[in-house]
Amino acid sequence: DRALTVLGMESSCDDTAAAVLRHEPGTAPVILANVVMGQAALHAPFGGVVPELAARAHAEKMDLAVEQALAGAGLSLGDLDLVAVTAGPGLIGGVLAGVMCAKGIAMGAGLPLVGVNHLAGHALTPRLTDGAGFPYLMLLVSGGHCQFLLVEGPDRFTRLGGTIDDAPGEAFDKTAKLLGLEQPGGPAVEREAARGDAARFRFPRPLLDRPGCDMSFSGLKTALIRSRDQVMAGRGGLTRQDRADLCAGFQAAVADVLAEKSRRALAECTARGLRPTAFAVAGGVAANQALRLRLTEVAGDVPFLAPPLRLCTDNGAMIAWAGLERFRAGGTDGMDLAARPRWPL
Ligand code: KG4
Ligand code: ZN
Questions:
Q1: pLDDT, averaged across the chain
Q2: Ligand 1, atom 19: nearest CA belongs to which residue?
Q3: 251 lines ligand 1 (CB under 6 A)
Q4: Ligand 2 centroid to residue 316 C-alpha, Å
Q5: Domains parsed from the chain with CATH numbers
Q6: Which residues, 6 or more positions from 68, have their beta carbon under 8 angstroms from its beta carbon?
Q7: Residue 89: CB within 6 Å of ligand 1?
């Protein structure tokens, strides 16, 4: 096992990302460069990611992201040992753009190629940032994902449960929209909630009455609309305090559900005879401080790991790392590597 320098590329949603990572066995991996080119401004007028626009932007920007990552690392293609790329799941046009670009680079530079599952990228991040040992429990919470994963090896993931409808980030974004706050909704709702009274509105905690780790967040939206409309009907509008109280009530409901289901997921690990080395979170919603606090409490004696935000959200470093883990375990792909819109772990 020798030191390896890996290029990681990510384009499955609305971030064009490339990173260079170096790892010498027995030492902590080093992120030499981590370039993320977001597309927020491109999609903003449409109120959501437009797949065709995203794909075109990825195809146009990926070369540049790679160039910047190499320049940032002070390296050239000849210094690389491996090219890792997200091969799914995600918006197929974007994934395809990344895979094609990665094939071109691997072929041109005579380097091995590894296709990475985007979710594995998120799920293995605690090993990149904190050297987490197997097994550990991961809660992935973003705008598109919400699931508990038991991670037992670089290629051994068990889904213990997840959302049956919306992801929490999506719920935060919708709440912000319904209350006239800016997007992305998460940070805006958290800011308002900090000034609000969580006890004024009592929102549902869906599926808590059912066993298991599945969750549901779409009903919260309906409840929020009802409460908002009741207040507006009485007063003809929302005051700043109404808005803050609605945000606080909503955030408390999300945190309660995630905390209780995390407790169950940890109990499920124990029931399987496993002692997790850590309870880790990833995804944009993991930025929420109120939520982090609750999850820390739930973790108890199990170390709670929350990677830095730039590595919690979509990035190339996590793909480089997951690719490296796969490569070290003997996995590589050929020029027939396919882009997959759906790819369960
Ligand atoms: O992981 P991410 O950057 O992208 C994907 O969805 O893949 O997550 C973005 C989501 C958005 O829905 C955003 O509103 C949410 O994460 N988010 C937050 C916070 N910061 C970002 N949600 C709650 N509280 C926050 N502080
Ligand atoms: Zn992601």
A1: 95
A2: 186
A3: no
A4: 11
A5: 4-131+310-328 (3.30.420.40), 136-276 (3.30.420.40)
A6: 18, 33, 35
A7: no
Which ligand is the nearest neighbour of the Cα of 123?
2
Q: How many CA atoms lie within 13 A of 243 on its CB side?
A: 16
- Measured distance CA(324)–CA(329) in Å, rounded: 8
Does residue 8 have its Cβ closer than 6 Å to ligand 1? no
Query: Model-level pTM?
Result: 0.93
Query: What's the pLDDT score for residue 44?
Result: 80
ipTM: 0.98
Crossing angle for the helix pair 240-271 and 185-193, nearest 10 degrees? 110
Measured in angstroms, how far is the CA atom of residue 272 from the centroid of ligand 1? Answer: 31
Distance separating the N- and C-terminal Cα atoms of the chain: 26
Whole-number percent of the chain with pLDDT over 70: 100
Give which of 334, 278, 328, 327 is closest to 307, Cα–Cα. 278
**Which residues make up the environment of ion ligand 2, defined by Cβ < 5 Å?**
314
Q: If we measure between CA atoms, which residue out of 212, 12, 189, 187 comes closest to residue 93?
A: 12
Residue 235 — very low, low, confident or very high, per pLDDT cuts 50/70/90?
confident
Q: Can you tell me the distance from the alpha carbon of 4 to that of 321, in angstroms, rounded to the nearest whole number?
A: 11
